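Hi F.,

I've been meaning to write this up properly since the lab meeting, where we talked about keeping a consistent format for the predictions we share between groups. The idea is simple: the sequence comes first, exactly as it goes in, then the structure tokens exactly as they come out, then a line or two of notes. No screenshots and no reformatting. I'm using this chain as the first example so we have something concrete to point to.
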Amino acid sequence: MTLKSFKSVPDGRFHSLAVVAAMALVVGACGQQSDAPLNGADAARTKQDVNDASDPVLESALRDQIMVDPKLVQQANADALRPPAQPESLALPPETIADAAHKPVAGALRTAPAPSANCPQCASARRALTLGALAASQGGSADCVRNVRYSTSWANRLPDAVPLYPDARVIEAAGADGNGCALRVVSFASAAPMQRLLDWYYTRTTDAGYRGGHGQDAGEHVLAGTREAAAFMVRLRPRADGGTNVDLMVDAPR
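Output, unedited:
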């Protein structure tokens, strides 16, 4: 057998083949997993990943359907700006409380008489803890006081002679009807100063035929009067904001 002689390989081509072979070895090494032991931090992370993957509680939480409480949905984004539920009515805004407090009334107001320093009604009113007790302290019929019922609706059933002041903000009201009773007791706040309320109620009640007086004690004022079998009492106390707190009682037995 005749042996064929090898042709010599140029030096440049041999160098290229060597580079290709070296790169193949590097790529092969990248595909093999290192058998070197993990350091402490890597081992801890690997263990945690395995535990998390096999934790049934975590897996259940991730797979379960999200539950929504319909009662709390309305509370979400409570302060967010939303479009109105219906078109704006473009109605004029209502009068403010302050405007109503100083709104002119029909006819001129007469000035209430100067208060007397002797005011037993002031002291008895301060001791009353409820509207019923207030009515009793001012001479309300015992039978009517026992039948007092509490509801703000009583404020709308005051007689025309002793009505609510125009800007009254009702706090509490009570009353009794039937069996000869027509008792009304209302607590309210007003933005008007005390003197305006005194003049307003003095003018209204005297025009309706009530006769009475004006007492003062420790900053409290009481305007009270009677007409035949009917009686009224207005207790006024100044508020820190310049307004007035008022307790109004009307007893008109039938």
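Notes:
The longest strand covers residues 169-178.
The radius of gyration is 45 Å.

If this format works for you, I'll send the rest the same way.

G.
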